[in-house]
């Protein structure tokens, strides 16, 4: 029994995705879209957890490569962001990540990123806290000024050595000379087929191992140190916002529902309803660049 439970937990921490389901919101007592009521709850919250997904970065122009219309060449991210794809075709996977790195190096935080960062700074002065738990692998929350950020899926701008395990922040453009001008996304662009010794390699003396993006691939488990911190935040928050998340990638899709199961109010901000909408107290439909600044603006009860 215990073993079974352990297996289930381990499986639950492996990153995987389900199909997107979109449809009209079923007319039930919850969730509601009462912003005035949400604002009252917000004004009393001391520890706010904001869980963000690709929708926040999409408003900065960062594609997710998750839909049919968002393919890179012939593939979606779940075809390329896997350990199997990286070991079979490291050149192709590096081209894909090189393209994504170059994209995010040129993007600026969106209105939603800025609203979250401003809220954290303002509430800190009032002895209240905001933590961002994000699935996004770009650096836009930090660029916006958010200080307390837990990146559960890793970072596009970090590498990890396959040989020595060294993790390094790496914002070089291009990351190596062989990838210069490679990674074009068009459906007819042929693979560059870069020899593995010309792909990004470790700088540590005597190592020279192959580097990989320090991101969590589909099928891999999430970093246990980060997950421990996420668990603590999920236990202590007294308000949760789930922003720009399609809630189809696990285990992050379960974070909001788990917090809601403690009786904590959870508000979803998304362009569509999601498979998890029914678990939440509030659902604010629309672009989070429009709904979030209203939700997180200074409340009249805040003392400055
Ligand atoms: Zn190394």
Automatic annotation (TrEMBL):
InterPro entries: DHS-like_NAD/FAD-binding_dom (IPR029035), NAD-dep_sirtuin_deacylases (IPR050134), Sirtuin (IPR003000), Sirtuin_cat_small_dom_sf (IPR026591), Sirtuin_class_III (IPR027546), Ssirtuin_cat_dom (IPR026590). One of its GO terms (cellular component) is mitochondrion. Zn(2+) binds at residues 161, 164, 202, 207. SUPFAM superfamilies: DHS-like NAD/FAD-binding domain. It comes from the Eukaryota. Its cofactor is Zn(2+). Gene3D superfamilies: SIR2/SIRT2 'Small Domain (3.30.1600.10), TPP-binding domain (3.40.50.1220). NAD-dependent lysine demalonylase, desuccinylase and deglutarylase that specifically removes malonyl, succinyl and glutaryl groups on target proteins. Has weak NAD-dependent protein deacetylase activity; however this activity may not be physiologically relevant in vivo. Belongs to the sirtuin family. Class III subfamily. This is NAD-dependent protein deacylase sirtuin-5, mitochondrial. The lineage of its organism: Eukaryota, Metazoa, Chordata, Craniata, Vertebrata.
């Amino acid at each position: 029994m215990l073993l079974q439970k352990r297996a289930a937990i381990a499986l639950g921490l492996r990153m995987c995705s389900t199909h997107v389901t979109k449809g009209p919101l079923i007319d039930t007592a919850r969730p509601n879209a009462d912003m005035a009521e949400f604002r009252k709850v917000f004004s009393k919250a001391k520890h706010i957890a904001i869980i963000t997904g690709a929708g926040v970065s999409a408003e900065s122009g960062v594609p997710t490569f998750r839909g049919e219309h968002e393919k890179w060449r012939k593939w979606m991210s779940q075809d390329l962001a896997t350990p199997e794809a990286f070991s079979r075709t490291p050149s192709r996977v590096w081209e894909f990540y090189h393209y994504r790195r170059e994209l995010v190096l040129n993007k600026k935080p969106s209105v939603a990123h800025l609203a979250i960062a401003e809220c954290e700074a303002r509430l800190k002065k009032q002895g209240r806290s905001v933590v961002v738990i994000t699935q996004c692998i770009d650096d836009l929350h930090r660029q916006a000024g958010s200080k307390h950020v837990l990146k559960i899926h890793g970072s596009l701008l970090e590498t990890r050595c396959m040989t020595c395990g060294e993790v390094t922040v790496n914002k070089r453009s291009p990351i190596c000379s062989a990838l210069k001008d490679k990674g074009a996304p068009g459906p007819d662009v042929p693979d560059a087929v870069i020899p593995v010794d010309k792909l990004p390699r470790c700088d540590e003396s005597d190592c020279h191992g192959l580097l990989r993006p320090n991101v969590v691939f589909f099928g891999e488990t999430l970093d246990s140190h980060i997950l421990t911190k996420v668990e603590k935040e999920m236990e202590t928050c007294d308000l949760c916002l789930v922003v720009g998340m399609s809630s189809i990638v696990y285990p992050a899709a379960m974070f909001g529902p788990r917090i809601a199961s403690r009786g904590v109010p959870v508000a979803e901000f998304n362009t569509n309803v999601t498979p998890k909408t029914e678990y939440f107290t509030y659902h604010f439909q629309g672009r989070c660049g429009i709904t979030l600044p209203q939700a997180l603006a200074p409340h009249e009860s805040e003392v400055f």
